């Protein structure tokens, strides 16, 4: 009897542990990226190498789970949409995020990632992919959450207030990190552009899924295109050997970590959780990254935490959970026939259903606010 309870508790906690692992990996990626960017790493070189690693890691999944399935689907139209997918979702979204991260701080930048579900929701309203539903309780909760998220971001951007240090300033000299000159205004503009690009990218997935509904191949090919695009633009900006040289240092570790864990492993864990708990489950854990990054950045890098950031973080977390709660209630209140029709429209084949990917999101994912990074940038 006792053994059965332990087994049941272990099974029920697997999804929670999986999503906690995702947030821990995302936190590590944000901090490692911030450190190497401060130390002079060329952003486009980082993106090129990272997505080469991600493509290599995704290849076994693509060729094993989708072998022999894509021959009839590959054409110039598919290549065009995959090219646009990588251009919008990786080159613009991730590139702008990295440059914004370089100009600000990891804690400040992660605030904008938590706004992606809200901005996607606004775009869905504008494009008439979703209704406001102000006459329903779920709709009111959803709108209130969106307002709180936007308010939190505004406060974090515009209000500083009192500053806090979790470690004494004299201890910061032991941390070998070059401090970058903060250009907060420029960084904020870049992060807003990244947020808009990510949201546009998720809307784009509805079209991409119709023309090429193979998630592992889409992820792999998108990463290949992203590497080519990043390399092409990067070489136009900086062709020096120093910008592209790889050495056995923290930069190489960050590239391998980002490509294998923050992209490939995160993809597998999120897909597994979506299948078992639904698409709205993974993003409920996203605010944890904000908390982890804020604390570790203050402890490791010695970054300051301001009262405005703390207040903004609290409002964004409350707002995001309110938004997801409203979306969950809304999905439960939908007629069963509508849900079945949506599922049928996004099924790869009539008898096969594949898990959702961070790089290929279905209409249901968009409607439920399942907006991740992240593939975390």
UniProtKB/TrEMBL annotation:
<dbReference type="InterPro" id="IPR037185">
    <property type="entry name" value="EmrE-like"/>
</dbReference>
<dbReference type="GO" id="GO:0005886">
    <property type="term" value="C:plasma membrane"/>
</dbReference>
<keyword id="KW-1133">Transmembrane helix</keyword>
<feature type="transmembrane region" description="Helical">
    <location>
        <begin position="141"/>
        <end position="161"/>
    </location>
</feature>
<feature type="transmembrane region" description="Helical">
    <location>
        <begin position="106"/>
        <end position="129"/>
    </location>
</feature>
<keyword id="KW-0472">Membrane</keyword>
<comment type="similarity">
    <text>Belongs to the drug/metabolite transporter (DMT) superfamily. Plant drug/metabolite exporter (P-DME) (TC 2.A.7.4) family.</text>
</comment>
<dbReference type="InterPro" id="IPR030184">
    <property type="entry name" value="WAT1-related"/>
</dbReference>
<feature type="region of interest" description="Disordered">
    <location>
        <begin position="348"/>
        <end position="377"/>
    </location>
</feature>
<feature type="transmembrane region" description="Helical">
    <location>
        <begin position="15"/>
        <end position="36"/>
    </location>
</feature>
<dbReference type="Pfam" id="PF00892">
    <property type="entry name" value="EamA"/>
</dbReference>
<feature type="domain" description="EamA">
    <location>
        <begin position="17"/>
        <end position="150"/>
    </location>
</feature>
<feature type="transmembrane region" description="Helical">
    <location>
        <begin position="77"/>
        <end position="100"/>
    </location>
</feature>
<keyword id="KW-0812">Transmembrane</keyword>
<feature type="transmembrane region" description="Helical">
    <location>
        <begin position="309"/>
        <end position="326"/>
    </location>
</feature>
<dbReference type="InterPro" id="IPR000620">
    <property type="entry name" value="EamA_dom"/>
</dbReference>
<feature type="domain" description="EamA">
    <location>
        <begin position="186"/>
        <end position="322"/>
    </location>
</feature>
<protein>
    <recommendedName>
        <fullName>WAT1-related protein</fullName>
    </recommendedName>
</protein>
<feature type="compositionally biased region" description="Polar residues">
    <location>
        <begin position="348"/>
        <end position="363"/>
    </location>
</feature>
<dbReference type="GO" id="GO:0022857">
    <property type="term" value="F:transmembrane transporter activity"/>
</dbReference>
<feature type="transmembrane region" description="Helical">
    <location>
        <begin position="255"/>
        <end position="275"/>
    </location>
</feature>
<feature type="transmembrane region" description="Helical">
    <location>
        <begin position="42"/>
        <end position="65"/>
    </location>
</feature>
<feature type="transmembrane region" description="Helical">
    <location>
        <begin position="284"/>
        <end position="303"/>
    </location>
</feature>
<feature type="transmembrane region" description="Helical">
    <location>
        <begin position="187"/>
        <end position="204"/>
    </location>
</feature>
<feature type="transmembrane region" description="Helical">
    <location>
        <begin position="216"/>
        <end position="235"/>
    </location>
</feature>
